[in-house]
Amino acid sequence: MSALVSSGMVLLIMLSILLWMVGTMSEVSTVRCSDCDPTPPTYMYLVDDFCVCMFTLEYLVRLIAVVPSRVELLQLSFVEALLVSDAGDASSTHRARGARKLFEFVRSPSNVCDLLTVLPHWAERLFQVSQLSV
Fold it and tell me: Could you write out the DSSP letters of every residue in 46-62?
């Protein structure tokens, strides 16, 4: 299943790059007025929005799944601490490990790159909505 999701994400990345490259071609873009910049067709925006939504969803799923990973259950010391020690001690240790894993995930170079890839899209959408309400 993981290989299928990874392959799908690679295909979406390639589609997004292809759309961006084709969207810059003057043969594909339309000019609405003499002073306006050329704009790609609407379907390109919709496909790009879909790609960014999928990238964001994939990032959020990885972010959510990083803390409760089952790797700790394979560590004998963790299982012993969970079974032998006080429940409060074990849960606080588990929370501390989870926070550390979350911090390591967020600051890893590939995940920073993933976040910086989708943030401009969502910032642009947020500013478009705020300009419409003004």
Answer: HHHHHHHHHHHHHHHHH
Helices (H) and strands (E) in the chain, counts: 5, 0
Taking alpha carbons only, the member of 52, 24, 39 closest to residue 114 is 52
Secondary structure of 101-129 in HEC code, one letter for each residue: HHHHHHHCHHHHHHHHHHHHHHHHHHHHH
The label of the residue with tokens 């002073």 reads 35
- Rounded to 5°, the CA angle 92-71-68 comes to 50
pLDDT digits (tens, 9 = 90+) for 43-96: 999 999 999 999 999 999 988 888 666 556 566 776 676 667 655 555 566 666
**CA dist., res. 52 & res. 47, Å (int):** 9
Q: Determine the Cα–Cα distance for residues 40 and 23; give it in Å rounded to an integer.
A: 5
Q: How many CB atoms lie within 10 A of CB 55?
A: 19
- Angle of the 87-107 helix axis to the 42-66 helix axis, nearest 10: 150
What residues pair up with 39 in beta bridges, in sequence order?
30
